[in-house]
Amino acid sequence: MDKARYATADGPERQVVVTWPDYDADGDQMGRALAREGLAVRLAPKLGARTPLEVRALVQNAVGAIVSTDPFDAGVLANSPTLRVIARVGVGLDSIDLDAATAHGVAVTVTPGVNEATVADHTVALMLAALRRICEHDAAVRRGEWNRTGEHAAWLLSGSTVGLVGFGHIGRIVAERLRGFDVRVAVADPVEPRDPAVEPMSLDALLAASNVVSLHVPLLPTTRGLIGARELALMPPGAILVNTARGAVVDEEALADALESGRLRAAALDVFADEPPIGSRLLGLPNVVLSPHVAGLSTTSVRDMTRRATASVIDVLRGRAPAHLANPDVLDHATFARAWGHGG
Fold first, then answer.
1. Mean pLDDT of the chain
2. Which of 2, 72, 211, 320 could hold 160 in an S-S bridge, CB 3.0 to 4.6 Å?
3. Contact at 8 Å (CB) between 267 and 255?
4. Predicted TM-score (pTM) above 0.85
């Protein structure tokens, strides 16, 4: 069976840079599939913050990239002349300049429909962890304490109002998961929800009515800083904020203020404005549950997403239109028009 070849920084031009951590370079539908296409795998896992200059150095000789949340800005794309495809493991595109990718003939693909249930499960887990004070109690027991009542008592999800900001695929699955908890579910979304079991509201009304607010919106210019000091002040005293969307949707300084003052009871966060959130005030607060942007990750979802991303790279480099193309206008670029039957 073909074994994956590995490229170095000075390796062959037909190399695929993989920044997704824990990529199976010898998997039959991953690294070995690339090797069968004559492509060398260069592993460069993203384990912390990475600058555009670092990304530019990584992909300068690559024809493809299977990526995490690495910043592919206009400068990176302008200086990556051999790059033909960026396969994002996941669906978030806020780290990739799609217009620049299209202008430079770089196809960008995503892997939707794989991890929505995983994100929904993690969202509910964070809600319960914050309400039941799991992390606080765990730390106390490890210190030799046995705090069970009074100021240490946990809170109840059942009977509360949960507000979902965003009601796309993930928001709808979260609502389904919550039905077993006997909660009232409110929804704020530009599209009127068709689910009779939820109550549509404006964002301000939802914030004022909800004991738990959970965010499920993409990061767009209109959602950046969506939840700031004004919005947090609308939430009932003792409310909880859960974010499994994108960190920059929340003003983290305003959130830290609300948590430190006791205005909010707790927060549960899987995403941060800077990842990892080194130096963030949120790290020092006992009433914050933290996870490292893993809501969409499970052994199953990682396997399926990396396989799909690998297939997308192979499709593009073979001259086939890939599934889940995020910038379909690239089909008309001179690089692809003839091979894919588009353009003049």
1. 93
2. 211
3. yes
4. yes
Q: Is 246 a catalytic residue?
A: yes
Domain count, the chain: 2
The stretches of 192-333 forming alpha helices (DSSP H) are 203-209, 229-234, 252-260, 299-317
To 10 degrees, the CA torsion angle through 181, 184, 189, 191?
Answer: 100
**pLDDT on residue 339:** 61
pLDDT above 70 for 337: no
Phi first, then psi, for residue 227 (nearest 5°) are -110, 100
| 149/254 same-domain check | yes
Helical pair 116-131 and 134-142, crossing angle rounded to 10 deg: 60
Alpha helices in 107-251 (DSSP H): 116-131, 134-142, 169-178, 203-209, 229-234
Residues 127 and 224 in one domain: yes
Q: Which two tokens stand for residue 323?
A: 């599934």
Residue 196 sits in the same domain as residue 275: yes
Please check whether residues 108 and 196 belong to one and the same domain. Answer: no
Listed in sequence order, the residues at least 6 apart from 293 whose beta carbon sits closer than 8 Å to its beta carbon are: 69, 270, 271, 272, 275
Q: Are residues 312 and 207 in the same domain?
A: no
> Do 122 and 238 share a domain, yes or no?
yes
Beta strands in the chain (DSSP E): 5-6, 15-18, 40-43, 62-67, 85-88, 107-109, 161-165, 184-188, 199-200, 212-215, 239-243, 264-269, 288-290
Q: Cα–Cα distance between 104 and 14 in angstroms, integer?
A: 18
Q: Which domain holds residue 28?
A: 5-114+298-340
Q: Which of 42, 216, 246, 333 is catalytic?
A: 246
Whether 293 is catalytic is yes
Residue-wise pLDDT for 249-259, tens only, equals 999 999 999 99
CA distance 272 to 149: 32
Q: Considering only CA atoms, which of 314, 309, 249 is closest in space to residue 33?
A: 314
Q: How far, CA to CA in Å, does 252 sit from each of 9, 226, 264?
A: 38, 11, 13
Residue 153 sits in the same domain as residue 33: no
Catalytic residue from among 5, 293, 307, 308: 293
Same domain, 175 and 266: yes
